[in-house]
Amino acid sequence: MATATYPPPPPYYRLYKDYTENPNSAPKPPPPIEGTYVCFGGNYTTEDVLPSLEEQGVPQLYPKDSNVDYKKELRSLNRELQLHILELADVLVDRPSQYAKRIGEISSIFKNLHHLLNSLRPHQARATLIHIMELQIQQRKQAVEDIKRRREEAQRLLKDAYVTLDGQ
């Protein structure tokens, strides 16, 4: 019984058979997807928008205004999370049947923490790019200084060699 190691190529490879002779003979790639699309049963969007907690069905535990003090709110949510975890331990010891409510509250706090952190991602990305660009500028300045130093050294060596030849 003979078996193939690899499956045969898909039939559309024939569309590219004349590509080496005429690169324009290949079909054009499909246009980029815009809007929403379905992949493996999940709905996705090409827009880079952070959905609100209400859209996700999660109660927002921090103020809804645009001037949120992220540091203060993250600390507050972190303390609240610690308190709820301690309460969960207490509930599991004393009243194990009531743990589901505490788990739901902890889940809500985690989702709020993640939402706050994700809203800081654009700022983090911008700061990272600024840092990378500053490093590149510094490296290029060092490279220019190194080139200038080597040029001056080469000029000095040439001048010394010229003086030595004139002295003979």
UniProtKB/TrEMBL annotation:
GO biological process: regulation of transcription by RNA polymerase II
Keywords: Activator, Coiled coil, Nucleus, Transcription, Transcription regulation
Predominant subcellular localization, coarse grouping: nucleus
Gene Ontology MF term list: transcription coregulator activity
Any Gene Ontology CC annotation: core mediator complex
Function: Component of the Mediator complex, a coactivator involved in the regulated transcription of nearly all RNA polymerase II-dependent genes. Mediator functions as a bridge to convey information from gene-specific regulatory proteins to the basal RNA polymerase II transcription machinery.
Protein name in UniProt: Mediator of RNA polymerase II transcription subunit 7
Species the sequence originates in: Arabidopsis thaliana x Arabidopsis arenosa
Lineage: Eukaryota, Viridiplantae, Streptophyta, Embryophyta, Tracheophyta
